[in-house]
Records
---
Amino acid sequence: MVGKKEKRYVLRKSRSPAIQLQEELLLFERVKEYSKSHFLKVLNHKNETADELFASNYCQLHEEAKEWLKRTAENCPIVAVLITTVAFAAAYTVPGGPNQNTGTPLLLYQPFFVVFTLADVISLTYALTSVITFLSIHTFPFQLEDFRKSLPRKLMLGFTFLILSVSMMMVAFGSTVILMIQNRKDGRRFFCIRLLSCRLLYLVSRISRCIVGS
């Protein structure tokens, strides 16, 4: 009965077709675990097993999930490549500029320069990893069984790396702002901006952790 749709079955348009198909597959697998093995080979009046009945009834959802996943795997790498470009360019245009004689950054020994460097490198690494993850989705044959664990896991992994990359880029931007204003003579204004920047970086890390954890 799990492989057969109800007459009042309506797809929830608020969720992606891939996630809906995964939920249906997981429900089908749970019912199979509690069913006796000989029931799985019983044929209905159309000479279909439970697996064949499920595949035929959810054929349209399977096609929608396949097309949605392909579009997502094609569009998300574009964002990741843009982040990679910005992070790569930021590594050669460091805050404060280089020393004209030695070529070393003028703010090399500032504490937030280390934060900027680490955040920029991590953002570049996560962005490239997300690109590889999304491109690897196209190597799957997009069979029905792939939507149970493999494809959703790859998709969530790519989104996780992409979100972490954006978060690290925001951390690098906040560090750059602090580095550029810390030599100002107005100590009270600098302290307020520095406190606000640290608070912003903390909120970014909390939001990223919540998104990744969900």
---
Amino acid sequence: MTFGKGIPLDSAAIMSIVLESILYGFSVLMFIGTIWALTYKRHMRDVNRPIAAVAVLLFTLSTAHMVIDIIRTEEGLIQYRDELPGRPDAFFADISRGTFVINNAIVVLQTLLGDGVVIYRCYVVWQAIWVIILPSMLWCGVAVTGGYSIYSFSHTTSTSGHIFSKETQQWISAFSGLTIATNLLSSGLLAYRIWEIERNVANSCTTKITTTSILRVVMDAAILYTIALLCTLITLICSNAGPLVMIELLTPIISIVFYMIIIRIAMGKNHSHILTVRGELMTGSETDRGNLRHYPLKPLQVHISQFTHTDGALVCRNGSQDRPSTGKEVSVEGASCSV
């Protein structure tokens, strides 16, 4: 049976495993960089454990997805190559197989995890519940449509030369559309808040540099993720095998997007700490000089202690004297005592 238009399904499987392997390699390197950024020169109590746990979970899911994808490709091209009437195309067209269903369940879990982290960042930055109400509702919609997509995969059969039934296409389209909306809205709110903070502290050169770079990487990550989802939607409409390739690529892309933000924020914290200390020293010295210029000179009272030694006793007396100020305030005090 010929499955619609587009490249052959066995070619699509090879293409997807090659591209996913390349992206997975990048994600492994970025995962190592993320763990290094979170733990470098820090005690265990200072490590952001929730973010580290999310990074490890994303890495675990992407690794499991890669392993299952290799198993599925091996089964279709070698193990069951001659056992099905349609050869490899028939195997890869059967989206109700367990390997395909599990792989897409991993994609849904990673999507929910990544979007949930972005929504959590919005709450942390805004410190307001009302800001994340709409993104949270969209996130719930992503969970529902993702769950129904997995259910549709497990109960569908390839008919009329098409891999995805009309119902399955609708669920995938709804899932991708809601994911795009959630990602753009959450990233937009986060970027706006960062920009607003930068504008409010525009007099601080250090803060401006740090927040600008973080703002740029947040927007870059959102654009990368959105382009991947848009490509999935477009291939779902225009091609029969295209979605099989794009769905496999979403898992490493989600991990890469998360890692690049964490690495940049961690680098920004370390850089801003050093520059902030220097900036405070510079600002403090300039402020001191400004205070000396703005405050008028006033008479200064200096306390002078007089010491008298008589017959083994040390008597301390205090005296005072008014002198004109020279711009510095000095106080020397003594107290009565006896030995």
---
Amino acid sequence: MNPYPNRWPTDWYQGQYNPHVYVPPYYNQPYQQAGWHGFNFDRSAPKSKWPNLNPILASDMTQVRYDIRKPAREGIMLSTWQQISHVPAFVAPTYEVLIISKAFPWSILIHVPAGSVVTCGAIFEGLRELLQKPIEDSEWAIVALEKTRREAIEKAAKSRQDKDQDKRLKRIDWLGDTPMFKGLERDEEFEKKRHLPGSATVAETWVVRFGKP
């Protein structure tokens, strides 16, 4: 049971985080101890390049098509969400995952307390939360002189604003016409280039891909 049904405890967010830190509010709910038992994956079927990552999340295996403009509980079929949301994201117990992308300049650290593990649901909800934040002035400066990217962001924002009536530019708009989750993958060369010199490294660093609906 979620002990914070109407709000998240504010003491999880103290000061400015870089990268953005996401702590799933339901971390104390039961989870499966190892692997993702209950999914009858065909052992003769093709295997992912990343066997430690749940196939639900792997870019070369996932069948989940999630439009990240929507909350995960709405953007993913309800029956599917109920099956996958509390399933561990990795075979080995994993408490901390850093997600980066070639599609946006931010990073998100998904962190769960001791005694729990990062779940597939935490990945989806963490990404959604990250991309719902407003674009800051310094972030807009990155694309101010890039006509094509700027126009794509503004077009995506207009389409979204017509529905939610929020006139601020949001990070989700940065994805333009590619808001569909296409999975996680490893890219060591990109990870090295993307890593901020002097900052701590996270063993489980993954690159998220997006595509068109």
